[in-house]
Design a protein that fits this description.
About 20% of the residues lie in helices and about 35% in strands. The chain is built from ten helices and 22 strands.
C-alpha cells in the first residue's frame, strides 16, 4: 500500500487511537449512550447563553503521570448564534436512482458518461510510453522510482524488470485506441473481466465506476454503497489531470492545515504565504463555484470551514517541488434552524471490534475542492433526512460541568499513554457547541437523532523513541473529546454514538 503524505504525524495519531480507545469507566460521568437516551431529555426555558454560562476563553493546564501527559487548554469557546437548540430525528436518505440522479445532475449538467472499465484500458501507445519511462529509470540506476521500499527479505517491492516484461507482453494484445462505452450513472451495470477464454461477465450491484466528460474537463466519478439501502454511500468526483509527470506516481490533495500546523526535526512544513503561491483563484470566486453546485442539492448545506489545499505527486514529505497545483477546500455541513452540524475529521460508522456483524452508519459529510479551472474534487457521504423535532428548547448542562467531564475524561482516555510515548502535550485551541448525530446500531442503523454536543479541537506534541513531532492545533479539525451537551455523555466520534 502506498504511503500517504498525512503520515507526517501517523505514528502519533495511531498511538492516540490506542490511548483513546480504553474501556470507558462506569462512573457518574458516563451515562446511557445512543439514540434511546432521547427519552430522558427535558425542555427548559431560557436562552442557550444563559443556560451554559460559558466563558469566551477557556484556560486550563493539567499534568498527569509525572508530566508524561500534559493537557494545555487555551481555547476560544464558540456558541451558536441562536437562543435555543432542539433535538431532531434524522434518517438516512434512501439509496436509490433518485438519489444518484440528484447528485449527478448537480455536478454534471450536459455531461456524457462512460464506463471506467473500457475508458481506462491502456492502448499500445500508453504501454510503450510506460516501458520507455521505466527503462529510463533503470538506465539512471533508479530501480525503486516510486519508493515502495523493500520486503522482509530485503528485496525491492517494485520489481522494475518484471513490470517492464509484463507491459511488453500486454502491449501486444492492447488496442490501438480505446472504444468508450457510454452509460448512465446507476447501479447494476455489467462489464467483462479477463480476456479471451478467461473472460466473464460481472455486475456492479452496489457501485458505479465511470468517467464524466464535460466542457470544463473530464472527471472520474464513483458511487459506492455497502449494499444495504440503509447503510453508507459515498459519491466521489476527481478531475482527471494530465500534468502528472508519471501516471504511476502517488498523487493526492493535501490539506494546508497538515502543513501549517505540523513540525518535525526533519520537516518544518509550510507557511500560509507559501501555500498561497500555488492558488491562482480568489477565495470569493472559489466559494461561489462551490456554493452554486451544492445549492443544487437542496439539502441546506452551508460552508462551515475552509482550508488551503495543494495537489502533490510523489512519496514522502510535501515540498514545493512536488506541488503541481493549489486551491481551496470547503467543508459543507447541514444547518438546522440556524445551527450547523459540527465538522470534524471523524467519519463515524466505526465498529467496536472486528468481529462485529453490525451494519454501521457513517456521518453526513461534504467536501469540495476548487482550483483556478473549477471543481477539482468532491466527496459526499451519507446524506440525512431531517425529520420532526424530538425535544424543543432542550435543557443543556452548564459549561463548568462540561469542562469537569472533559478534564477527567481526557486523563482517563490517555491512561496508558506512557506505554507508547515518552511525553505528550495536548493543545486545545477551540471548543464549539453544535450538533452531532448519534444512533444505536443494535436497534436501527438508518435513523438516529441530532443532539447538541461540545467538541474540543486541537493538536498535540508527541515524543516517541527520541523523535519529537509537534502540532499546535491552530487550524485543527480533530476533536479530541465530544460531550453530549444535554446529559454529559462522552460520545465516541469514530463509532458515532
Amino acid at each position: 500500500m502506498k504511503k500517504k503524505h498525512t503520515a507526517i504525524l501517523a505514528a502519533g495519531l495511531c498511538l492516540s487511537m490506542l490511548a483513546g480507545c480504553q474501556e470507558t469507566p462506569k462512573n457518574t460521568i458516563v451515562r446511557q449512550k445512543g439514540a434511546d437516551s432521547v427519552n430522558e431529555y427535558e425542555s427548559a426555558e431560557g436562552k442557550i447563553k444563559d443556560m451554559v454560562n460559558a466563558p469566551e476563553i477557556y484556560q486550563n493546564q493539567a499534568e498527569y503521570e509525572n508530566g508524561v501527559l500534559v493537557i494545555d487548554s487555551n481555547a476560544k469557546v464558540v456558541l451558536p448564534e441562536v437562543d435555543a437548540m432542539n433535538t431532531y430525528k434524522v434518517s438516512a436518505e434512501e439509496i436509490n436512482q433518485e438519489l444518484i440522479d440528484k447528485v449527478t445532475n448537480a455536478f454534471f449538467e450536459n455531461a456524457k458518461f462512460y464506463h471506467s472499465y473500457s475508458y481506462y484500458e491502456m492502448t499500445k501507445a500508453q504501454y510503450q510510453e510506460e516501458i520507455t519511462r521505466l527503462k529510463q529509470y533503470k538506465a539512471e540506476g533508479n530501480l525503486d522510482p516510486y519508493e515502495y521500499g523493500r520486503d522482509e527479505n530485503g528485496e525491492l517491492t517494485f520489481n522494475i524488470d518484471e513490470v517492464i516484461a509484463r507491459d511488453e507482453e500486454e502491449m501486444a494484445e492492447a488496442p490501438e485506441e480505446v472504444v468508450k462505452e457510454e452509460v448512465k450513472p446507476s447501479f447494476g451495470l455489467e462489464w467483462v473481466s479477463g480476456k479471451g477464454e478467461e473472460s466473464q461477465k460481472e455486475v456492479d450491484e452496489d457501485g458505479f465506476y465511470g468517467v464524466a466528460e464535460t466542457e470544463h474537463g473530464n472527471y472520474d466519478y464513483r458511487i459506492v454503497s455497502s449494499g444495504d439501502v440503509s447503510a453508507d454511500i459515498k459519491f466521489a468526483i476527481d478531475k482527471i489531470r494530465d500534468d502528472v509527470p508519471d501516471p504511476r506516481e502517488f498523487t493526492s490533495w493535501m490539506e494546508g492545515r497538515y502543513l501549517m500546523d505540523h513540525e518535525r526535526e526533519d520537516y518544518q512544513g509550510m507557511t500560509e504565504e507559501e501555500l498561497k503561491e500555488f492558488v491562482d483563484i480568489s477565495y470569493e470566486d472559489a466559494e461561489k463555484i462551490a456554493r452554486e453546485k451544492i445549492e443544487k442539492l437542496g439539502w441546506d448545506w452551508e460552508i462551515q470551514d475552509w482550508d488551503y489545499t495543494v495537489f502533490t505527486h510523489g512519496e514522502g514529505n510535501v515540498t514545493k517541488e512536488k506541488i503541481l497545483d493549489g486551491g481551496y477546500l470547503f467543508y459543507f455541513a447541514r444547518v438546522v434552524n440556524g445551527i450547523p452540524i459540527t465538522c470534524t475529521d471523524s467519519y463515524g460508522g466505526g465498529l467496536e471490534d472486528m468481529d462485529s456483524t453490525l451494519v454501521p452508519w457513517g456521518y453526513e459529510r461534504c467536501e469540495v475542492i476548487v482550483g483556478d479551472d473549477g471543481i477539482q474534487k468532491v466527496e459526499i457521504y451519507n446524506p440525512y433526512q431531517i425529520e420532526e423535532i424530538q425535544t424543543e428548547n432542550v435543557k443543556l448542562m452548564d459549561f463548568d460541568s462540561i469542562a469537569k467531564i472533559y478534564e477527567e475524561m481526557m486523563e482517563v482516555s490517555n491512561a496508558d499513554l506512557s506505554e507508547y510515548e515518552k511525553q505528550r502535550t495536548y493543545h486545545i485551541t477551540k471548543i464549539t457547541l453544535g450538533y452531532s448525530r448519534i444512533y444505536e446500531p443494535t436497534v436501527d442503523n438508518q435513523s438516529g437523532i441530532l443532539v447538541p454536543v461540545w467538541d474540543f479541537f486541537g493538536g498535540f506534541d508527541v515524543e516517541i523513541e527520541g523523535h519529537l513531532e509537534k502540532n499546535n492545533g491552530e487550524h485543527s479539525k480533530q476533536s479530541f473529546m465530544t460531550i453530549n451537551a444535554i446529559d454529559g455523555t462522552v460520545i465516541d466520534r469514530e463509532l458515532g454514538y
